[in-house]
Specification:
10 helices, globular, 23% strand, 13 strands, six-stranded mixed beta sheet
């Protein structure tokens, strides 16, 4: 039988068959060992072939084949640097939920996420959440970020899950698509899903007062069918986002504003660092490219392995505060 993976706990997979039945499945032992470097060989969104195990009283399936993926979004496993973690696959649209405060979503995190979405061919939209909590200063910061990313070509939407602002526009974007919500713990992913589909009643938690950090409420990635013709993959909060398997020469291609200038650089293999007559550096000096984007590019280019593991709620925020002084 063939079906789609709706939930993954790492050892068990909930698969919806083509007939519409949900079956709890496991992977055949040999299949698990086929040189897969990912911490999770099967991800939510995967199309799989499975067979029912008739040796038990329970209805249990055994997955023996994964169909080719249209795309997937992947990051380095934070604790196992040589391993990767596939967050979800076969996605039409990925929404990165951004909060300006409580907790802070840094531009470094946003850019690493967007670079990965570009590399794996997934359209990304930035959702600026919690706009009902903004002070004038925070709103100025949010509107500036929205300007930066809109100028590059990314769609941005201001939403508030608690008061329902922007929810109808979000539904319209999501209609008839397989969508994924991602972001740090505490940015309001589950609250936003509940605003879209109240009947799901996903668990939510308050932000930790002591560190302004989110608390994990979603433990495993899970896909839900929504009544307005969309599927949403809710994912656990991501603390750091490590970029996977990119050659230095190609990283700039996943920054759309850099790629647009690439043919104007003197050297076709320009890394936009020390090379003379670099169109990207010229645009940077003329404030046509955001410095935050260039700094993110340099961090990824230099393979700053520790950057994505840092306490993003502390070190990056302090650095950002210093720049604003």
């Amino acid at each position: 039988m063939t079906g789609t993976v709706y939930k993954s706990t790492g050892s068990w997979y909930t698969v919806k068959s083509q007939a519409g039945d949900f079956v709890e499945c496991r992977i055949k032992g040999k299949f698990r060992m086929k040189g897969i470097k990912s911490t999770n060989p099967i991800a939510v969104g995967d199309i799989v072939d499975f067979e029912l195990d008739n040796t038990t009283d329970e209805i249990i399936g055994q997955i023996h084949t994964i169909h080719d993926r249209k795309n997937y979004i992947v990051r380095k496993s934070v604790n196992l640097s040589k391993q990767t973690h596939i967050i979800a696959s076969n996605i039409d649209l990925v929404f990165l939920i951004v909060t300006i405060h409580n907790p802070v979503t840094t531009t470094s995190f946003i850019d690493r996420f967007l670079v990965t979405a570009e590399a794996y061919g997934i359209e990304a939209v930035l959702l600026f959440n919690k706009i009902d909590t903004f002070t004038p200063e925070i709103e100025d910061e949010q509107l500036y970020l929205q300007y930066v990313y809109s100028e590059i070509g990314y769609r941005c939407l201001r939403v508030s899950a608690t008061i329902g602002q922007g929810i109808d526009a979000l539904k319209e974007m999501m209609k008839d698509k397989v969508c994924m919500f991602s972001g740090h713990s505490g940015v309001g992913k589950s609250t936003l899903v509940n605003a879209l589909e109240p009947r799901l009643n996903l668990k939510t938690k308050e932000i930790s007062d002591s560190h302004s950090q989110g608390q994990h409420t979603t433990t495993f990635a899970e896909m839900f069918e929504l009544t307005f013709g969309s599927k949403i993959i809710d994912t656990p909060g991501i603390r750091g986002f490590g970029v996977v398997d990119m050659e230095k020469q190609e990283i700039g291609d996943y920054f759309p504003e850099f790629f647009a200038l690439k043919d104007q650089c003197k050297f076709n293999n320009c890394l936009h660092k020390e090379e003379p007559h670099c169109a990207v550096k010229k645009a940077l000096e003329e404030d046509k490219i955001a410095w935050s984007r260039y700094n993110s590019y340099l961090k990824i280019l230099e393979g700053d392995e520790e950057t994505y593991r840092n306490d993003i709620y502390d070190a990056d925020r302090k650095a950002s505060d210093e720049k604003r002084k």
